[in-house]
Specification:
This protein is an alpha+beta fold and 319 residues long. Helices cover 39% and strands 18% of the residues.
Length: 319
Amino acid sequence: MAEGIRLKKVGEKVDQYALIRASTRGIASNQKPFLTLMLSDKSGDIEAKLWGVTPEDEGIFQARTIVHIAGEVIDFKGRMQLKIAKIRPVNNLDQVNITDFVKAAPLDAEAMFETVQEYIFDMKNPNLQRLTRHILKKYQEAFKTSPAATKNHHEFMSGLAYHVISMLHLSKALVQLYPTLDADLLYSGVILHDLGKTRELTGPIDTAYTLEGNLIGHISIMSAEIEKAATELNIQGEEPLMLQHMILSHHGKGEWGSPKVPLIKEAEMLHYIDNIDARMNMLEQALETVDPGSFSERIFAMENRQFYKPSFSSSTSQE
């Protein structure tokens, strides 16, 4: 495949295949319809506008459609956008597959799952260990491939597993620094906190919210799963209640989607670990294609800020 669409700079030409991950109809100021397309390949996404579309165009350029596209990358109000010159749907002669255009986590899904299993194996609390293993096993195949969101952070194949692995490593460092934290409760909360997204979201291709996701959401889904697992495993102790609280409070505030605010220290740490990893992922994706000494495009989920990439580097990992 040609150089990734997300790796292009402003002013560069694009002439390649891409997947339409999302297609949204709008009406322009001249009252003519247009489509906002989210185009994707393994390097990431870029937005494009298709102006003056016909009803036929609307039927053709739908989500999950692979297209060949030509155009130029422009800067639109601090965000990169593709100005379309030509676009067409692919046919059998193009010999491309939808999986060729789906961004994936940088680590192998099976290896990440094994790492999660190791954290569970090391748990000393039998109730938390049994609950976590029981629920993860139920969703293990979806866990390996599911994204962690529809947009903003870890919105790629196996993004959920990658998010969990990163949070587990952060948790381990925190437990070493603050040994009064209950490691098993924190690890269990990390592993299960977003597992409901395997039911909230449709999967890594054309990710959208399911009906259950829209009406109930991943937090309520997983809280109910913990209660159900505790009944099935006949676990009577306080652990299921504490674990439910971890799930119900991990967004931190009611306005951020949490039914409860954190009221135990492990829940407070889970909220901040979750936020740290989500924000770091957004920053890394935004700055990946930015030249040193330049600003990123605006990151809407981070107060619409543009972040600067320093022109010096103190480590070999920031070349």
